[in-house]
Amino acid sequence: MAEIERLVARSFLATARCASFKQAARSLNMHPTVLRKQLRRLETSLGEALFVYQDRALALTSRGLSLQAELASRHRDLRPEVGFAERPELRLSLPEWVLDDVLGRHLVAFLRRHAGVRLELLRQDQGPLLQSEVMIWLADPDQARPDPGFAMTRPQRLASVEFQACIGKRYARERRLPARLCDLHDYMLVQRPDTSASAVFAPWNALVDARGSAVTRAHSQQWTMELIRHAACIGLMPHYTSHIDANLQLLPGLFARPMRQSIWLACAPLSAQREDVMSLQALIHNAFAERRDWFAADDE
Length: 300
Known about the structure:
Blueprint: H1 6-18, H2 21-28, H3 32-46, E1 51-54, E2 57-60, H4 62-74, H5 80-84, E3 89-94, H6 96-113, E4 118-123, E5 134-139, E6 156-168, E7 188-191, H7 202-209, E8 215-217, H8 221-230, E9 233-238, H9 241-244, E10 248-250, E11 259-267, H10 275-290
Parallel strand pairs: 3-4, 3-5, 7-8, 7-9
Antiparallel strand pairs: 1-2, 5-11, 6-9, 6-10, 6-11
Helix pairs in contact: 1-2, 1-4, 2-3, 6-10
């Protein structure tokens, strides 16, 4: 048998294991078309078919089975359990609602294309910045660059998001919408977990703290939204909420000053030029560009 290039052997063995061209391509972080071309050239050089569809499933021919055994014996370091240990860690720290509202669909697509990455998602709350390969965090508009105690690339401003009071449409008709702070006395307030430590939200926090009752403190934006939607509560939500849920009604004008924060992105310097890190950064920029109309007008 003619010598088979290591890269081609890796592609063949992955496809044989996965019984799927697409899944093998994801595992190898390559485009399915490139993988299929490699395997067709291999079949041409051997003069025999290696794969066949049986009952709508990809299977190895008898020649494919023998080649699988030969290559697996020759390239023991291409076994998947060996390859897993070689993957560098890719950590992404970000606020939970940024993942849910902005990046979720794009991140799913990223993982479909890069099934071999070693990804860890870290929840970035209002506390100290978590050290990660890629970091997304919120800061008040006048807040200086954070000093997390570790090196980071120069922060890039992704967007500015404004938070407004919000109510479920089923609980307030247009002519009876709360228009002043005193109109909120008859409503339960729900406090999201990421607003209490920021000076930007001082007017809202003062309103919540002044109450001895009729306050619910939720542990996530998802639960904040559920209580607003179904429990007649009023709480703070990003002002793009009306784009993603037609059942929620914003209440602009309740507070004299807008409650606005900036969303920032930075990377760990030693990994900033890694291919997977750069791909993830590009994904993040594309996701925010697609949602440009969701964010505050002063982003430009």
